[in-house]
Amino acid sequence: MNVATILSEKGRDVITASPDDSLLEVAKTLRKHGIGCIVLTDGKGGIAGIVSERDLVRAIADSGGDILKSPVSSCMTKKVITCGTAETIDTIMSAMTDGRFRHMPVVENDSLIGVISIGDVVRLRIAEAELEAAAMRDYIATG
């Protein structure tokens, strides 16, 4: 199974923001949409960065509440690791584990087409395991 499978199930909607938006604006957007990260775009459709709830908490812990007035670019991750729709779930799990991040933008033809989370990946892995177990039970029962 691959990233395309995840996107076909969850959809391709992506919530984005500008690096110039304040941390407070971004926090409100995360809350409003019930999401854990937001991709920051550069105005030309390119990815300028990504910021997660974890990034916001670190910024507040390091600098206090006044940081919420600052642009989100002050705490965003600038080197964003992305994937394509053909990448396998194993590859994505490995990249997320090694990089210690939980969200990955999906890019196709230089355009942002989705975001997948570790929850999406785990959910698909569980579904795969359940299918394999059911197939094995059927094989044993009829074999």
Quick summary of this structure?
The chain has 143 residues and is of the alpha+beta class.
Write the layout of secondary structure elements.
Layout lengths: L2 H8 L5 E2 L5 H11 L3 E5 L5 E6 H11 L25 H11 L3 E6 L2 E7 H25 L1
Helix pairs in contact: 4-5
Overview of the structural elements:
- The chain has 143 residues and is an alpha+beta fold.
- It has a single domain (3-142), classed as CBS-domain.
- 46% of the residues lie in helices and 18% in strands.
- The protein is built from five helices and five strands, in the order αβαββααββα.
- It has a three-stranded mixed beta sheet. It has a two-stranded antiparallel ribbon with strand order 4-5.
- The mean pLDDT is 93.
